[in-house]
Amino acid sequence: MARKRTNDSERTRQVVAQEAARIIVGQGVRDYRVAKEKAADRLGMNGRGSLPGNTEIEAAVAEHLQIFGGESHQDLLRLMRTTALSAMVLLADFSPRLVGPVLAGTADENSAVNLHVFADSPEIVAMEIGDMGIQFRSYERRLKSRRGQVEVYAGFEFNHQSETIQATVFPIDGIRQAPMSPIDGKPMKRVDTDAVQELLQHV
Predict the structure, then answer these.
(1) Which terminal residue of the chain, N or C, has fewer Cβ atoms less than 10 Å from its own Cβ?
(2) 174's torsion region: left (phi>0), alpha (psi -120 to 50) or beta?
C-alpha cells in the first residue's frame, strides 16, 4: 500500500512537472514556482501530495523542448548561443560568463541571454555599453550567496542581434564564487567564450 502511495505521488509530480513545462515554454513564464502552481491548479492537484522540485521541472522543460522542438529548437539554441558569444565579445573587458537557460539548453523563444560580467562598479559597465551607442535599461537581481545571504546585483538589459541580453554585474572577485542557482541550490554553472565556442560545435 505504501508502495502504491509512493508511485501515485511520483506520478503526480511527473504530471505536474510536464504541465509546468508546457506553461513555461508556451506562455513564457520564467518563474518555476508560478508555473508549478499554475500547473497544479489547472490539473486540480493542489493539496494532493508534494509538488515537483525545480530540478524536476527543468528536466521536464528539456524533455518537452527535445520532443516538441526538435530541429527548430536546436536551430534556436544555436542562434542564441551565437548571439551570446557575440555579446560576450562586446563585453570582453568584463570577463563575461554565460549562465542560465541558453547555457543549459532549456532556452525557448521567450528566453533572454543571461551573462555575468565583472567590474569595479556597475556604472563602468553602463558607460561602456552606452559608449557603444547601445540603448539599455537597468534592473536589479536578487541572488543567494553560498553563505545563504540574499544579495542584490545591478544589471543591464539591451538588444543585440534581435535577442535580449541581460548582463548582471558582479564585483571583480565575484568571478571566483558563483551565486547559488534557484534551480538546484548549487553554485550556478558559468562558462567563458571558449566554452561557448565549443558548445556551438556540438549543437
Answers:
(1) N
(2) alpha
